[in-house]
Write the structure tokens for this entry.
Amino acid sequence: MPKSLPLIEYSDVLCCSPVAAGIVSDADALELALRLKALADPVRIKILSFLLVGGTNGVRNVDLVRELHLTDATISHHLRQLSLAGLLVASRSGASTFYVANRSALGALVRVLDPNCCS
């Protein structure tokens, strides 16, 4: 059985040196691993993809349920994991909750993995 990573608060934007800059600290490695673990699921990748093309106004949970053909409980679970990792932002408008990808958090993750990626 795979070893579980600890539950810690890590919703802030990733802030550590690029992995190519030298051996990362234990704390930075854990912070990076937790975010990558949040992405390491096909449903979460599809949700993130849908959110990234969904525009800046956000996407409702019900839209994800309809588009991905999954239950509300399944979508809610995955949205929570992505939220805990700081990779999406939720906002309420009336009775609806809208989700948008946190592009700055995603950009920080890319820069930590490959600082030469997007310059």
Notes: The chain is about 50% helix and 10% strand. The domain at 25-113 is CATH 1.10.10.10 (Arc Repressor Mutant, subunit A). Residues 26-39 form the longest helix (14 residues). The chain has one domain: 25-113.
